[in-house]
Amino acid sequence: MYAPTEVRLLANGNSLRELPYSLRAASCLVNDAPEHTPFEPWRETAIMRHLKSSDAVITSGYEQRAQYHQHCLKRMQVGIPVNRKFIREEKTRLRKLATEVNRYLPADIIASGRICPIALSGYLSASDYKMWPKKLTLSGIAQLCVDTQALLSLNHELAKVLLAYKEVSAGKVITAMKACTDGRHRYWSNHHATITGRDKPVGACFLYLPAKYRESILRPKADMALVQLDYAQQEPLIVAAMAGDRELVQAYEKGDMYELFLTDGNRRDEVKRQVLGYIYGQHQYAESSDIGNLLAHYLAKVNCYLTESTARAFSERKIQCYDWQMAVSHQHKVLSIRNWICQATAGSILRKACLLLDKAKLQVVAALHDAVLLYLPIQNLKNSIQHASSLMQRASALILKDAELRVSVEAVYTGGA
């Protein structure tokens, strides 16, 4: 049996039983290769020979997927420079804090890793319950707030223990995170491991750490910097471009697309949640909100495109994007196929960006969802960032054709080891 990731890499989303002989032979050659190492020349030649004799539609884009495989190996070999001392000390602190939490936090307050407000209320006196912040649920029932902001506002021992619990939970990745003796953190990106073709990094990976840790953990050399570049408002522009909605694309080009949907009393983060929910078919929530009419108006073309594309996917029993595809059956959920269209395209854009950056010798050390982490020399850093940003924009334009994603500098980390 072949490893599922390798089969997807070669077969472009087709299941093993759907592959012709030549492609199964190529899959075997990939599966027998040493793990996480570049293909030997003879193996790569044999793989390509089998692929050329196979169905060109099935193997479409394989060469780019093979290049991305090599890129991911290179990323893992280079690693991310980290502060080993901080990681070691933080692991010790979190383990001690976890011991205290286990001692003082009633076990039934936590259910499936989440704080249960109903169970929490049973441990509060009448006066404490009265002063504890509350919010209304969808059914109109007052419920205790257990978010970090609410807990910080309280001078209560149980609130302090719950904050400690949240800190321990957020630190689970760092307690399992590993750094090599050369001061580098390495992880396998597990590319093409999801149904949308996106990466799904393995284990306690740096990318899963809460953002608050990054400043302390990242430790570039004195003459180097780590730079995080993000695509801005990726999902709405992708679907607008694919639907051919020039009005939405132009709104994006002018600035913040979400401003189209802002009304009195609505925060931008709430508007963003509603817009993305509407795009992915959760119309029942959007239509009951103040911005429901705006969503229905401005996203009409996008909604029509996604609805028709989803129906066509079920009819043709497959769905395709730039360089990836997936077999579709009646067992798939409609919303999951609708979501696939945008997510698979976003994954293609990020992979294309990584390959362009690699070709330009701008070192990518991590990539996830809509961002890359680059390891760049301090000298001419501004020019390097501008060059990297333009390449990421170009990658989006090559795939979206009539639109181009903006790229923002999310963070720049400097230091010395």
Describe the structure.
The chain is α+β, with helices and mostly antiparallel strands and 417 residues long. Helix content is 51%, strand content 12%. The chain has 19 helices and twelve strands. The chain has helices at 4-11, 21-31, 41-52, 62-78, 84-104, 117-121, 126-131, 148-152, 157-170, 172-176, 214-217, 234-242, 246-254, 268-279, 283-287, 292-298, 300-316, 334-359, 381-400, and strands spanning 80-81, 110-111, 114-115, 134-136, 142-144, 184-185, 224-231, 318-320, 325-327, 363-368, 371-377, 407-414. A four-stranded antiparallel β-sheet has the order 10-11-7-12. Strand 10 and strand 11 form a beta hairpin. Helix 12 crosses helix 18, helix 16 packs across helix 17 (300-316) and helix 17 (300-316) packs across helix 18. It is globular. It starts with a helix and ends with a strand.
